[in-house]
Every structure is written in structure tokens, then in C-alpha cells.
Amino acid sequence: MSLRGSCHCKATVFEVTEAPTTVTRCTCSLCSKRGALWAYYQPPQFRLLTPRENVATYQWGSRTIKHHFCPVCGCGTFTDTPDFTSGEPDFDNPRVSINARLLDDFDLDAVEVVVIDGKNLW
Fold first, then answer.
1. Rounded to whole angstroms, how far apart are CA atoms 105 and 118?
2. Distance between CA 71 and CA 43 in Å, rounded?
3. What's the rounded Cα separation, in Å, for the pair 111 and 101?
4. pLDDT, the chain, mean
5. In angstroms, rounded to a whole number, what is the distance separating the alpha carbons of residues 18 and 39?
6. Is 91 helix (H, G, I), strand (E, B) or coil?
7. Domains of the chain listed by start with CATH number
8. Strand order of the sheet with strand 38-41?
9. What are the φ/ψ torsions at residue 21 (nearest 5 degrees)?
């Protein structure tokens, strides 16, 4: 069952192939200030319905992760990132993380929140 998500003004819209079973709350400075809860997908499981040129991107630090956001309303929408499950960036296995708070018609309170200590990891 695919799910659709969108920013506040609906200028950025995306779809994922399935509902997340968990979401991640990262404590790094950027994620904690954004307040996002991240759900991770393989690139084929994500589809951006907005033209890519209408999405803004922010990169910081190592510039390893592309943090995308709506240039109209400012909502953080999704990221392009290497897989970090081993603790090191795996560039051969890219991931897309979506801000699960933006999923339409989805009960986010029913999903387990996993906290990662990004404040001290990187």
C-alpha cells in the first residue's frame, strides 16, 4: 500500500511504497532543530511527484547527506543519504529518508520511535 506525503503548502509531494514500521528521531543539531521523524527507504521505494528542480537542498559538514526541503513553506521533506547501519557511510547502498511527519492519512503515533544519538555520533 503506497502512502503519499507532502509539505505544508503541498508544493513538495512524494510517495513511498509502504508504511514505515519504525521511525528514527536523531539528536544531531540539524534533526533536533527540524523536529523530523525519519523513515528509511531504498531509492526504488520512493517517488518524488514534484519536479526535482522545485525542491531546495541543504548540505552541511561533510556534505555527505542532501537534506531537501520545500522552498515555499520551508518544511524538511526528505534526504538522500548513504546507508549508515554499519556506523560508516556505505555509498554503494543509498537510502532515502522521508520526514514521516509529512505522511498524509497515517497514524504516526502507532509507530515505534527509535532514538539515535546523532549529537555524539557525528
1. 29
2. 22
3. 11
4. 92
5. 10
6. strand
7. 3-121 (2.170.150.70)
8. 56-58, 66-69, 76-83, 90-99, 38-41, 22-26, 112-116
9. -95, -25
Residue 45: φ, ψ to 5°: -85, -5
Among 122, 20, 8, residue whose Cα is nearest residue 65 = 122
Give residue 110's pLDDT. 95
What cell was used for 77?
A: 521533506
How far is residue 83's CA from residue 12's CA, in Å, rounded to a whole number? 24
pLDDT in tens, 68-108: 999 999 999 999 998 888 878 889 999 999 999 999 999 99
Phi, psi of 26 (to 5 degrees): -95, 140
Sole residue written with cell 505544508: 8
Which of 19, 99, 20, 7 is CA-nearest to residue 50?
7
| Alpha carbons 76 and 7: distance in angstroms, whole number | 8
Task: Give the helix ranges, DSSP H, for the chain.
Answer: 29-34, 118-121
Stated as kind and residue range, the H or E segment containing 84 is: none
